[in-house]
Amino acid sequence: MKLHSGNVAVITGAGSGIGRALALNLAARGCILALADKNARGLEETEQMLSSTTASTCTTYVLDVGDNSAIEQFAADVVQQYGKVALLINNAGVALGGTVEQVTLEQIEWLFQINFWGMVYGVKAFLPILKQQPDAHIVNLSSVFGLFAVPGQAAYSASKFAVRGFTETLRQELAGTTVKVSSVHPGGIKTNIARNARFGTMTEKEMDRGRIYFERVLTLPPEEAAAIIVRGIERNSPRILVGRDAQIMDIIQRVTPVNYPRTMKLLQRFIR
Q1: Catalytic annotation on 156?
Q2: For position 245, which CATH number holds?
Q3: Most buried of the four, 24, 103, 192, 202, by CB within 10 Å?
Q4: pTM value?
């Protein structure tokens, strides 16, 4: 997709992290932004950052992506205001730590409502207007955990595998149209997702240990992640791997699709 001044870009989860970084990156290119997040304060901070650094037009919407009626209204409002949408980035997501035995059904349902159904609602609501554009793109944020699974992340991995499967199918269905589709698989990005994660029936000590671990591996600045994603959009890349760790894990999973957990454990020992 050729990004240029006047493109209308929709970004969910724009109140922090990768979503905010994407908003700043696209605004610098002159894109018109429609930004959504459940966190009103974070969304306001993003808007203030945009107004102080760029002259790009920006409209914000406080909503829960897991609410289909809210997403449908969001799409209607954006189309009414701008008349077009060229880029949809389904970025909003949450995390849930814990083994299958530790997490509750309610927690898994909560996770899927945002990570998976929020993405589906976004695609369904905006696809009709995207198909009317001469050049359009859908970007769905999966994860490295949408490429491989690790213990303690069954629910999160399942949601991100689901995002990947939906996205890859959508890409094939839209082949030959003006709409390109990309799945994004970030590795360790330095955002608040781990700090804001929910946990299953763990002790405080176990939860703190989990947060410390993720704080240690989340190292890539969101601005660099956004730059990689935008470059992937411009190249119409079907799969965008964000970070060297994502690239390494992707290779390991492809080489040893069944025994990759053993390979990853050996690699971790070597790195230490």
Answers
A1: yes
A2: 3.40.50.720
A3: 103
A4: 0.89
